[in-house]
Amino acid sequence: MVLVIGEILVDIFPEYRRIGGAPFNFSYHLRQAGLPVCFISRIGKDHTGKEISAFLLENNFDAGSIQTDDFRPTGRVMVYPETGGSHRFEIIKDTAYDHIQLPDSPEAVTGQIPTLIYFGTLVQRTRKMSARLQRFLQNRSPKSKCFCDINLRPDCYTTETVLQSVARADILKINHEELAMLQEMLSRPAESEDEFVQWLMACYGIEMVSLTMGEQGSRLYTPGLRHETGVPDRGQPVDTVGAGDAYAAVVALGYLHNWQPARILTEAAAFASRICQIQGAIPEDRAFYLPLIQSITGDVHA
């Protein structure tokens, strides 16, 4: 079972709205790929919360661990497209997901030990929520691996939170710009990316680092080794929002299925590239997942 903690919200684009949030996107992709997922989040009793609840019900997504906040609004992000397919984000502060309630340990959520626990940095943007999550992770079983997704949005993180999160990671997902910021935090800016990542893995006991580099492709680091792939050629992207979350989901999927690094890279890059060809981070047609499902079931029947 995969346990995911973090934000569910609505991304508001100039012309449309989409359900989003990196942890939710990650959870949704894994559930569509057939993995058991428990997603812990929090929404308000407002119109946006009802919109999310209706979406989850319509798509048979188990909302049993999504809490309701009587006082705070559901998370919202204003998304402003920029040239080159990138986006600028305005993340509304003090929303329901900033106040997620957690039990003492992960096992207390479902009564079983999670195989993998996913968490990010945005949900830890308040000191209280960061302390709550770090305490929760500290009490996990040694059998539970941690997947840390670094997401450094302006005014939504502290150096302390980032370093604490990295220290919990067995798998670390990070992009090119965030890696440079992490080097600065750790006072190691003079090192090459390869040297820094290998030092990071050795220092913190990290098994795997997933590095995305936009148009330059992506890398997967394992102890002493670097694996690399380019971006599949699918033409001009329609929307890059959620591509990193899609990539992270397949990295986790590959890790749990014991895929070789080269396959993880290929499958993750292909899926993220396909997400870039639709509007928003979540496909409206479940048939979108068929190539990924067929790849997995091919393993089962081999």
Looking at the structure, the CATH topology is: UDP-N-acetylmuramoyl-L-alanine:D-glutamate ligase
* Strand/helix succession: EEEHEHEEEHEHEHEHHEEEHHH
Total beta strand runs:
13
Question: Residue ranges: pLDDT <50 for 5 or more in a row?
Answer: none
CATH architecture: 3-Layer(aba) Sandwich
Described by its quaternary structure, the protein is single chain
Number of domains: 1
Mean pLDDT across every amino acid position: 93
Count the DSSP helices.
Answer: 10
The rounded Rg comes to: 18 Å
The CATH superfamily is known as: Ribokinase
CATH class: Alpha Beta
What is shown here, in short?
The chain is α/β, with parallel strands linked by helices and 302 residues long. The chain contains ten helices and 13 strands.
Q: How would you describe this structure to a colleague?
A:
It is a single chain. The chain is an alpha/beta fold and 302 residues long. The protein has one domain (2-296): UDP-N-acetylmuramoyl-L-alanine:D-glutamate ligase, CATH 3.40.1190.20. 37% of the residues lie in helices and 22% in strands. It has ten helices and 13 strands. The chain has helices spanning 22-32, 47-58, 107-110, 127-138, 159-168, 176-185, 193-204, 243-256, 261-275, 290-301; strands at residues 2-5, 9-12, 17-20, 37-44, 66-69, 75-81, 87-91, 116-120, 145-149, 171-175, 208-212, 218-222, 225-229. The strands form two sheets. The chain has a nine-stranded mixed β-sheet, with helices on both faces. Strands 3-2-6-7 form a four-stranded mixed β-sheet. Helix 2 links the parallel strand 4 (37-44) and strand 5 (66-69). Helix 4 (127-138) packs parallel to helix 5. The model has no long low-confidence stretch (mean pLDDT 93).
